[in-house]
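Final report, closing paragraph on structural work. Over the funding period we assembled a curated collection of sequence-structure pairs, and we close with a single example.
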Amino acid sequence: MVFALETYSSTIECNKIISLFESDNRTQPGICGDNEYLPHQKKSLDLYCSFNEPEFEQYNELIFPILKSKLDLFVEKYSFLKHLEPWNISTAYNIQKYTDGQGYFTPHCEHSSYYSNRILAWMIYFNDSPCGTEFPYQQTTLQAIQGNIAIWSASWTHPHKGVTPNIGVKYIATGWCEYFKESN
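Its predicted structure, as stored:
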């Protein structure tokens, strides 16, 4: 079982991200892995972000530095990751809000034919919530504790889903690390 569950950042930073999300008019109903809206599988409000886009700078400056530092620690712990083909943090990530009764209802993994370059997944909880994330094969449920970050394999070995139906409100960011081709 490979998880890194580390404290992310301060309450102030987490609350700032929630406040930014709540005032952002670009949010939309959440989609599933193959870019489909399937409310029987996932019901959420999502903001699709990019570390490369200036319009997400307020989010990026709060998320990227700490994510990078936690991934560096993860790689130190699991040094085999240093010997793989070149990989890095994906530029794409999502910020998600789940309210009462919502959730990601079905087990899924982050690697698929549609997203074949993904090797790791990460998630940050921005608030305490009674409903975390289940990993059935690992017989583990991550508690949704404000400021915690989790990192795990994107592969089929780590299917996961939300603890559903969600109770209250849960805010998270989720993203990936993926292989990339170096320029010649």
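The domain at 4-26+43-179 is CATH 2.60.120.620 (Jelly Rolls). The longest strand covers residues 87-98. We thank the funder for supporting this effort.
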